Amino acid sequence: MADVTYDEFGPFKIIEVYEPGAGLRGTLVVDNVSRGPSIGGVRMAPDVSTGECLRLARAMTFKNAAADLPHGGGKSVLYGDPAMPRKQKEELVRAFACALAEVEQYIFGPDMGTDEECMAWVRNEIGRAVGLPRELGGIPLDEIGATAWGLLHAARVACEYRERELAGARVAIQGFGAVGRHAARFFTGEGAIVVGAADVRGSVSCAEGLDVARLLALKEEGRSVADYPDGPGIEKGDAEAIIDVPCDIWIPAARPDVINEANVVRLQADMVISGANIPMTAGAEKILHDRGVLCIPDFIANAGGVICAAMEYHGASESAAMEIIEEKITYNVQRVLEIVREKNCMPRRAAEEMAQRRVRRAMALRRWSLF
Ligand code: NAD
C-alpha cells in the first residue's frame, strides 16, 4: 500500500472492507497486539488514507502501552459523511461491525464521527465495543470527566517535580468542551485559579481569577466563555488570545497543532499539561523545552479516557475506573520525569522510550512462529 510503512512494531493487520450493495467501505488497521487485543476508535469520515489510519493506530499502540493497559493499538475508518441521516448511519455502522466480526484482535471505540450510540449498535452486532451508553454498563467518560481527572493528577506530579504547589497555581485552558470544562472544575477543586479560558468563539481572562461556576453555566446555556460578564480586570479576545495569558499551567484541550513555531514565543507558562492530542508541533515542543517549560506529553497526560474505556471493557465500576486513572497517570508521569532526570532528555522522548520498551518486552514474550 502506497502510504503504509512497516517497522518493528507493525502493522499486524490491515483489512479493507467493501460492500457496494450496502454502500460500505472501510479500513481497519490493527497495529500491534502483543499486549492484548487492540482498542481504538472508529472514525467516520470521507477522506482518511490507510497511512493516516495506521498512524492513528500506532498512536494507540503507544498510548495504551504508556497507560500500561493490557491492550494493543488499532484504529478503523468508516468512509462516509458523519452527518448522514441517523438511520443510514446505523445501517453502515452495523454492517461495518459485522464485516469485522471475526477480527477478535480489535475492540471498537468511539472517535470523531461516532458516539456511544454507535458503540451500542456495534456491541449489539458483535459484542466487542467500549464507550457504551450507561444503560449497557458503559461509563460515560465525558460526563464524568475521565480525561480531565487524569490531567489533574499529571499536574500534581508535575508540580511536585517543580517543587511548587498546585493550590494557588494560575491555569489557562484552551477549549472548554468535555475535557476543558472538567479540568476547570477539578483544578479549582484543588485550589488552583483559572485565569483564562477559551472556546472556538473567543477567550476571557482575569489575572485575579475567573468564576468557574459562571463559565460552566455559560457553556450549559450553549454560550461562549467570551460571553463572561465584563468587570474590573476582565479581558476578552479572540480564541487565539488564550495563548498570551500569563499562567503557571497551560492546558490545551481543543485542537491539534495549536502551538507551533510561529506562535510558541507568545506562551508564558511554567508547564503545559496536554489534554488535546498533538496540541503542538514537535518544533514548538522542543523550543518550549529549551526555554525550561515542562511539557507533559499528550499520550501520557490525556490517557484518562482510554483507561476509563478499558476499565469499562473489563467490567469495572465508575469509581474504580477513576481510582485506576489516578493511580496509573500518577505512576506514569512520575516514571517519565524520573527518566527525564536520569537522561536529561525531553519528557516526550522519555515517554516514547517508556512506551516502546513496554511494547518490545511484550513482543518478546510472544510466540511468533507456529511451527
Ligand atoms: P469537545 O469537542 O468537547 O471540546 C472542544 C472545545 O475546544 C470546544 O469548547 C471548542 O469550542 C473548543 N475549540 C475548538 N477550536 C478552538 C480554538 N481554535 N481555540 C479555542 N478553543 C477551541 O472535545 P473534547 O472531548 O473536550 O476534546 C478536546 C481535545 O482533547 C481533542 O483534541 C480530543 O482529541 C482530546 N482528547 C479528548 C479526550 C476525551 O476524553 N474527550 C481524551 C483524549 C484526548
UniProtKB/TrEMBL annotation:
The keyword Nucleotide-binding applies. Keywords: NAD, Nucleotide-binding, Oxidoreductase. GO terms for biological process: L-glutamate catabolic process. NAD(+) binds at T147. The active site is at K75 (proton donor). The keyword Transcription regulation does not apply. CDD domains: NAD_bind_1_Glu_DH (cd01076). Substrate binds at K63. Residues 138-367 form the Glutamate/phenylalanine/leucine/valine/L-tryptophan dehydrogenase C-terminal domain. SUPFAM superfamilies: Aminoacid dehydrogenase-like, N-terminal domain (SSF53223), NAD(P)-binding Rossmann-fold domains (SSF51735). Gene3D superfamilies: Leucine Dehydrogenase, chain A, domain 1 (3.40.50.10860), NAD(P)-binding Rossmann-like Domain (3.40.50.720). It catalyses: L-glutamate + NADP(+) + H2O = 2-oxoglutarate + NH4(+) + NADPH + H(+). InterPro entries: Aminoacid_DH-like_N_sf, Glu/Leu/Phe/Val/Trp_DH, Glu/Leu/Phe/Val/Trp_DH_C, Glu/Leu/Phe/Val/Trp_DH_dimer, Glu/Leu/Phe/Val_DH_AS, Glu_DH, NAD(P)-bd_dom_sf, NAD_bind_Glu_DH. SMART domains: ELFV_dehydrog (SM00839). It holds the Pfam family ELFV_dehydrog. Catalyzes the reversible oxidative deamination of glutamate to alpha-ketoglutarate and ammonia. PANTHER family: GLUTAMATE DEHYDROGENASE, GLUTAMATE DEHYDROGENASE 1, MITOCHONDRIAL. This is Glutamate dehydrogenase. It comes from Seongchinamella unica.
